[in-house]
Specification:
334 residues; alpha/beta; Rossmann fold; D-Amino Acid Oxidase, Chain A, domain 2; 2 domains; six-stranded mixed sheet; binds flavin-adenine dinucleotide
Length: 334
């Protein structure tokens, strides 16, 4: 089966990997000049946090997101499974209690245990929730790794070429449309949720795992990368505006990071970036087949968490061999 995948974001690369694994002859086409230049996935924290997400997401996300842990362990050398810590200042303990009530698979963590897990946080926080099973990847390394592996296995990757699904259907058996928010005009009900992030280097400060700081106005997460580099994220704004990060949002991220630890006062800002998350009204993804085109979209804030599930659905809708994940049947899923 000859398959053309439109879009080398996280949905496209994961789908291409799974289709190739099931024997398809895969060609991946992206309109950007190089990997990540226009992909929302390049902005992501790379958190694989299905149980934390349960605080605000449907049970579907918690359940199917768990399957991403095994998938990324197998497919990314930057996979780290050290869990997630959820913290709140003394003033915001009510937020921690609420978070605990709304989520599963966590254990309480008192100050002494917290120091053991993250020595650099010291005794700044009295209580935390520890989600031991969660993980993260470095999204840029993870996407590059998938792209390299696809090429190594004989798939073709072409950049700088924009196509509509109709154009893409020529000379192939199947098209997988993974254009993210750029598909908005053809995918009804798709909306944008703007997210802004910052990458900083903070010498002398280390974290072994993703940390979420609960705050009634400015919730923050910090995802560690190599060499004392951290991704600070992320705003969630009901807007389709692609413009640069605003001063207000940068200020909020900085204030929240300072509240996590004063070491961030000395951090160097390496990058500020904004993008638009593709989302449907229910914030759940859809994998849908119409004729020769399967569309994967609406990954919202769960691109890394749910793309393995979406890819598996695409394999099923393509009529390739049975999937491993046991997703529910149906043309329109989730
Ligand atoms: C700040 C921020 C933090 C996030 N953190 C996380 C996180 O920690 N964990 C998580 O799971 N998710 C996270 N997300 C969400 C995640 O990034 C998105 O869900 C995901 O990127 C959507 O993936 P996608 O492949 O559908 O779209 P994209 O990543 O946007 O990829 C779409 C690709 O399609 C290409 N394209 C567009 N039009 C065409 C065309 N006509 N022809 C060919 N190619 C085309 C684009 O160039 C692009 O490369 C975060 C998002 C943001 C903004």
């Amino acid at each position: 089966m000859k398959v053309r995948v439109l879009g080398a974001g996280v949905a496209g690369l994961v789908a291409a990997t799974e289709l190739a694994r099931h024997g398809a002859d895969v060609e991946l086409v992206d309109r950007a000049p190089a990997l990540g230049v226009e992909a929302c996935a390049w902005c992501a924290g790379g958190m694989l946090a299905p149980w934390c997400e349960g605080e605000s997401a449907e049970a579907f996300v918690v359940e199917n997101g768990q399957k991403a842990l095994a998938w990324w362990r197998e497919h990314s050398s930057s996979f780290v499974q050290n869990g997630t810590l959820v913290l709140a200042s003394r003033r915001d303990q009510g937020e921690l209690t609420r978070f605990a009530r709304m989520s599963e698979n966590h254990e309480p963590c008192e100050a002494s245990a917290l120091v053991g897990l993250e020595p650099d946080l010291g005794e700044r926080f009295e209580r935390a929730l520890f989600f031991a099973g969660e993980a993260h990847v470095d999204p840029r390394l993870a996407l590059q790794h998938l792209a390299d592996a696809l090429v190594a296995e004989g798939a073709s990757l072409r950049f700088g070429e924009a196509m509509t699904p109709q154009e893409a259907e020529k000379n192939v058996d199947l098209v997988i449309d993974c254009r993210g928010f750029a598909a908005r005009d053809q995918v009804s009900g798709l909306r944008g949720v703007r997210g802004e992030m910052m990458i900083v280097r903070c010498p002398g400060f280390a974290l072994a795992r993703s940390v979420r700081l609960l705050h009634p106005r400015w919730p923050l997460y910090v995802v560690p990368r190599a060499d004392h580099v951290f991704m600070l994220g992320a705003t969630m704004i009901e807007s389709e505006h692609h413009g640069p990060v605003t001063l207000r949002s940068a200020g909020e991220l900085i204030e929240a990071a300072q509240a996590l630890h004063p070491a961030f006062n000395e951090a160097e800002i390496l990058e500020l970036r904004a993008d638009v998350r593709p989302a449907f009204a229910d914030n759940l993804p859809r994998v849908e087949r119409r004729g020769k085109t399967i569309s994967i979209n609406g990954l919202y804030r769960h691109g890394f968490l749910l793309s393995p599930w979406c890819a598996d659905e695409a394999v099923r809708l393509a009529g390739l061999s049975p999937q491993a994940f046991g997703a529910p049947a149906g043309e329109l899923v989730a």
